[in-house]
Each structure stands twice: as structure tokens, then as C-alpha cells.
Design brief:
The chain has 392 residues and is of the alpha+beta class. It has 10 helices and 19 strands. The chain folds into 2 domains: 4-76 and 113-182 and 275-354, 3-Layer(bba) Sandwich (FAD/NAD(P)-binding domain); 81-109 and 185-273 and 362-390, D-Amino Acid Oxidase, subunit A, domain 2 (D-Amino Acid Oxidase, Chain A, domain 2, 2-Layer Sandwich). Strands 1, 2, 8, 9, 10, 11, 18 and 19 form an 8-stranded mixed β-sheet that branches. Strands 5, 6, 12, 13, 14, 15, 16 and 17 form an 8-stranded mixed β-sheet that branches. Bound molecules: flavin-adenine dinucleotide. The site of flavin-adenine dinucleotide has 31 residues, from helix 1, strand 3, strand 12 and helix 7.
Length: 392
């Protein structure tokens, strides 16, 4: 038996947004927790054209970041409330979402990835400077009956009741702990870039579902928008290789000029898109959270939102576990896996289903899918249901 006083409650591997939010939530509740990362912690440098990585954040994610103090540390001038959403199909199909009349909260928020992580790291620096250790290399992991022993390349070994992988889609800890991930390529790359426009976006997030591709323009502070163009890989490579003027012309040919005349203000980047599913979310004294637990198509802007909800649910279960079980107890891990299984599967099914529906022109599906969008748009209750789902 390991001595209880030199053993952590939770050791989180991966100091991305998910890992740091989880670490702070647990530390705030008085648990003995550490977070490790193999890379040095980034320092956010605000740039004029905004970060390449821009995320839509649900109200539930906002609630978690707010609860751990990270939201209040973000520069409000770099956050945009989403006042409405429009989705256009490829043949006059249309969906519009807006908060119910009189609702105080917007549909969600748009913020840069770096600004969000920086908000959390500012809380760490102010309130829990010993929470994160980075850069550090994890050399060996050994699961014992009552703890997991973790050997680092330098420094003393650590022991923890529960080990959590928050080390991203390519998590190496996941495989090391015996959990299998299944990847399916979408044959697509997301091309991201930011644009200035000459008309106000009014906080509207816009999406165009084309045959085989999805284009999204998300509102950024001032008259700026952020592009996420999920394109067939060969087309994405062409877009990335174009001059800014040619890329902008290609974009305007798709979205028209209702969004104004666009001018590229950041260099573009491309991200391979894959579905990733795991056989199990937990193993003995081990749990997955964030992208280590799931990969989803970014068309719904929900990957990080799912990850933050993993963190919120796991924290809730561990904090309220009562006097009996330790944090790695199998009953707690089962409860976590049960609570997260359905929301993760539902989001993967939704995005994967939409991807399939719009990625084929066989069977004359185009009129049907556009009719479906219009039908959903006419049904207030169904739209409400979709919005509530995206905000969980
Ligand atoms: C184009 C695009 C657009 C997207 N848009 C949205 C959106 O609008 N809304 C949304 O919610 N999501 C969106 N996503 C998804 C989102 O980017 C991810 O879900 C999110 O970044 C995952 O965060 P994470 O903290 O789980 O993992 P990561 O951000 O990948 O962090 C993992 C951390 O683990 C560390 N690490 C890795 N390996 C090790 C190791 N061996 N040892 C120690 N540390 C390690 C890394 O250094 C890193 O700090 C989008 C994704 C793409 C590709």
C-alpha cells in the first residue's frame, strides 16, 4: 500500500484547455492534483489578425471557464457573443437560430484558442502556481491496486489515485494504458484564415453546406470574420497554395457579398479532419477527456465543447464522491463513462451523419436534404432541441 500523504488524487497529462480547466476545477475543490505537459506552456501574443485557431464556445463551456476563473481573465475585447446562426444548404435549404425572445444569454461565444488558454493560465499563475509542470517527459506508467506510479525523465516519480489523459487526439498515454482508438479520415482538411470585412457581421455565425464541403464564417471582434472551410483534401491543398487574393476570390464565389468585401488578414492553416472513437473511456485508475477521448468533424464547432463537458462531469463526480471511494475508484470511473457515452456518441453521429448527407449526390439527395433543413427551420421546438443539444 502506498502512503496516503504522498499520493495525488488526480494527475492530468496534457495542459491544453481541457486539461488545465479540469486541473483548476479539482484544485479549487481542494483535491491534490497536478497537470503535466511535454511542451513548454505557450504565452499568448495577441496579433492584429487574430489567432489561426478560433473556437465557438457553448454556454455550458462558458459556465465551466467562468467557474474556474478563466473567463474573467480573458480580454473581453477579444470575445464575440454569437447573436444568431444561419445555415444555408446547397439548394435553397436554410436554417436560422437565434436566442428565444427576451433571453439574456447569446447562443454562445467566439474566442481565440490562445486567448482562452491564456485566461486559464493566468488563473494558474495567480492562484495555483505549482499546478502545472512543463516541459516534462513521462517515461513509464505502472498501474497498481491502489494507485498509478508515473516515472518522469527527471525529478521524483509521482503516484496518483487517478491518471487522466488530456493529451489530445494523438494521445500516446491512451495506447500506453491499453485503450484503443479508431480513426476514420474524412478525406478533408479544414482551411482556416481570418478576414476583415466592410460591413458589420452583427454577431451572426454563418455556414454554407455545399455538396461535399462546408464553409463557416464566424464573427470576430470589429469587422472581422474567421473562416473554417472543410474542403476535400486536394481542394484544400489548392486553397492553401493560392495567393491571398485568389483564395479570397474563391471564398467570395461561394459565400457571395452579403458578408461584405473580404480581405485576408492572417496566414491560412490546414487541419486534417478525422472521426476518432475509442472502445472505452476508462480503464483501471485511468480516464480520457477532451480530444484524447473523441475526435469530431468541426462543422458543428463542438470538439472542445465536448472536451470541456468531459472535464466538468469528471470534476463533478470526483468532487462529490463522498468519504468512501478514492478518486480512482472503479464505481466513479464507470459513472463518468456512462454519463459521457451518450453525449459523445450523439455529437459524433450528428456530425458524421451530416457529413455523409452532404458528401454524396447519389440518390438525388440534394432536394431532400434541403427540404429537411427548411422543415426543421419551420419547427420551433425542433430547432430549440438542436440548440439545447449544442449548448450542453
Ligand atoms: C479547424 C478546426 C476548428 C475547430 N473549431 C472548434 C470550435 O469552433 N469549437 C470547439 O469546441 N472545438 C473546435 N475544434 C476542436 C478543438 O480544436 C479541439 O477539440 C481542442 O483543441 C482539443 O483540446 P484538448 O485540450 O482536448 O487537446 P489539445 O488542445 O490537443 O491539448 C493537448 C495537450 O496535451 C499535450 N500533450 C500531447 N502529448 C503529450 C504527452 N505525450 N505528454 C504530455 N503532454 C502531452 C499537448 O502539448 C497539449 O498541450 C476545432 C478543430 C479544428 C481542427
Amino acid at each position: 500500500m502506498a502512503r496516503a500523504d504522498d499520493i495525488l488524487d488526480v494527475l492530468v497529462v496534457g495542459a491544453g484547455i481541457t486539461g488545465v480547466a479540469l486541473g483548476l476545477a479539482l484544485r479549487q475543490a481542494g483535491l491534490r492534483v497536478r497537470v503535466l505537459d511535454h511542451a513548454s506552456l505557450p504565452r499568448f501574443q495577441p496579433v492584429a489578425g487574430f489567432d489561426q485557431r478560433i473556437y465557438a464556445m457553448s454556454r455550458a463551456s462558458h459556465a465551466l471557464l467562468d467557474a474556474v476563473g478563466g473567463w474573467g481573465r480573458m480580454d473581453p475585447a477579444r470575445i464575440v457573443p454569437i447573436e444568431a446562426m444561419t445555415v444555408q444548404g446547397d439548394a435553397q435549404g436554410q436554417l436560422q437560430f437565434s436566442p428565444p425572445t427576451g433571453a439574456a444569454a447569446p447562443l454562445g461565444y467566439i474566442a481565440e484558442s490562445g486567448a482562452r488558454l491564456e485566461g486559464l493560465l493566468a488563473v494558474v499563475r495567480a492562484r495555483a502556481p505549482d499546478l502545472i509542470e512543463a516541459p516534462v517527459t513521462l517515461e513509464a506508467v505502472e498501474t497498481q491496486a491502489d494507485h498509478v506510479a508515473v516515472t518522469l525523465a527527471r525529478g521524483p516519480a509521482l503516484r496518483t489515485r487517478l491518471l487522466v489523459a488530456a493529451d489530445g487526439l494523438q494521445s500516446s498515454l491512451r495506447g500506453r494504458m491499453g485503450l484503443t482508438a479508431h480513426f476514420k479520415s474524412y478525406g478533408q482538411k479544414a482551411v482556416v484564415a481570418n478576414y476583415a470585412t466592410d460591413i458589420p457581421h452583427q454577431g451572426v455565425a454563418r455556414q454554407w453546406f455545399l455538396p461535399q464541403e462546408v464553409v463557416a464564417l464566424l464573427p470576430l471582434p470589429g469587422n472581422h470574420v474567421s473562416l473554417v472551410w472543410s474542403a476535400q483534401s486536394a481542394h484544400a491543398e489548392q486553397l492553401l497554395a493560392m495567393t491571398p487574393a485568389a483564395r479570397t476570390a474563391a471564398l467570395q464565389a461561394v459565400v457571395g457579398y452579403g458578408v461584405g468585401h473580404l480581405q485576408e488578414v492572417s496566414s491560412p492553416a490546414g487541419f486534417d479532419l478525422r472521426l476518432m472513437q475509442v472502445d472505452a473511456l476508462v480503464a483501471a485508475r485511468f480516464a480520457l477527456v477532451g480530444d484524447a477521448a473523441h475526435g469530431v468533424h468541426p462543422m458543428a464547432g463542438q470538439g472542445l465543447n465536448l472536451g470541456l463537458q468531459d472535464a466538468a462531469v469528471l470534476a463533478e463526480i470526483l468532487i462529490h464522491r463522498g468519504p468512501g471511494p478514492d478518486c480512482g475508484d472503479v464505481s466513479l470511473l464507470r459513472r463518468y463513462a456512462r454519463a459521457r457515452r451518450e453525449p459523445i456518441l450523439a455529437m459524433q453521429a450528428l456530425t458524421d451523419g451530416l457529413f455523409r448527407l452532404f458528401s454524396t449526390d447519389r440518390w438525388g439527395l440534394s432536394p431532400l436534404r434541403n427540404w429537411g433543413m427548411n422543415a426543421v427551420n419551420r419547427q420551433g421546438w425542433l430547432k430549440q432541441l438542436l440548440m439545447e443539444h449544442a449548448n450542453q
